[in-house]
Amino acid sequence: MAETVAIILAAGGSTRMNTQVAKVLHEVCGRPMLAYVLDACREIGISKIFVVIGFSAGEVKERFAGDDDIVWIQQDEQLGTGHAVLRCKEHLKDFDGQTLVLCGDGPLIRAQTLKTLIEKHESGHSAATLGTAILNDPSGYGRIFRDDYGNIQGIIEDSDCTPEQLKIKEINPSNYLFDNQALFEALETIKPENVKKEYYLTDAVSSIIATGHKVEAITAVPPDEAVGINSRAQLSAASKIMQRRIQRRLMEDGVTIVDPDNTWIDARAQIGQDTVIEPFTYIHGQVQIGQNCRIGPFAHLRHGTVLKNDVVLGVHTEVKNSTLADGVRARHHSYIGDAMVGRNVNFGAGSITANFDGEKVNKTNIGDNCYIGSGSVLIAPLELEDGSNVSAGTVVLQGSMRGLSGKARIDVSK
């Protein structure tokens, strides 16, 4: 692959989403939508990425502060996609490679599609190559206009289409690859002669065609990758597509998901072979689940949870920021928060760790082979030795029992 850089357009705020958060920070299955676009670029070997930001720029930079391959470009006035790309000229004016341009609100694009785009661009020796898609309902998208021989003649924005042009089903999902010098030469020629009075990147494509350079449009983008996000409804639709991908990958890796339509798994979750996920389970955040576990139904696993092998979490059990060793059982209505739980511990129905005292979160440490009776409350900070047996309905605390009343109590201080 020739030397390639990427420009990701991420400056918009999205009026239709009615939000005070930068659009690209809205999450799809637990991750900001921009993160998926960055991943796709990195997966095909791009090591320098220019991200154009504007609305809530500080929050976007903070969210990706650890990503050292990003060059942040400020676009204070949002005057269109062409204007956004032109903001990168100072950094790329002497670059002789190729420039990939993507939208930060298109999280469903896959690396394989970008690879196909690059291969076609290089084999065709084109000045610009576009990845297009065919949609049954193309409304809202720019249309690809071709001549009678199938050659691309330009891209017409939805708001500028005639009634006849609105019938075109081939759309522009904004996946472009340019010869870098041709791109910036064309951008200098475009004018805001459209309904929105903006500088369109699509006009740069038309300018390249007009100068006689070769431009190709290939229908390489599957419909589910062409989905852009401009509303809360589209955000939900994109999340459902991403969720199907996440679950398909897990099932291919040997995880059983009994009812995919009624299960939600974060993109950051890792699940081991032969684990079974029962219906109505919700897994959110960086969660690690080992092999041969059984989770649910109606289980809730939160960020920071680590389950080793052969763990069983049953109906209405919630685990947060805790590590459960091999063989732990919590089958009914338990809450385990901020705990380290040893091997073969059994939690009876309704038993919980009380980890918050009103001011701070405290830790619970439970040794191996402990039995926690039904309805027990383990008040953190607390440490239970190996083999501890807590009777049903017991309140357990470390040290002084002062202030407790109305329940059986055990003081486990040494």
Please give a quick description of this structure.
The protein is an alpha/beta fold and 414 residues long. It is built from eight helices and 35 strands. The strands form six sheets. Strands 1, 4, 5, 6, 7, 8, 9, 10 and 11 form a nine-stranded mixed β-sheet that branches. An eight-stranded parallel β-sheet has the order 12-15-18-21-24-27-30-33, with helices on one face.
Describe, in plain words, how this protein is organized in 3D:
This protein is an alpha/beta fold and 414 residues long. The chain has 2 domains: 222 residues, Spore Coat Polysaccharide Biosynthesis Protein SpsA, Chain A; 180 residues, 3 Solenoid (UDP N-Acetylglucosamine Acyltransferase, domain 1), CATH 2.160.10. Helices cover 20% and strands 29% of the residues. The chain is built from 8 helices and 35 strands. Strands 1, 4, 5, 6, 7, 8, 9, 10 and 11 form a 9-stranded mixed beta sheet that branches. The longest helix has 21 residues. 45% of the residues are buried. About 2% of the residues have low confidence.
Helix content: 10-25%
Sheet with the most strands? 9 strands, mixed
CATH-level-2 architecture of the largest domain: Alpha-Beta Complex
CATH class of the largest domain: Alpha Beta
Which structural category fits the helices and strands?
A: alpha/beta
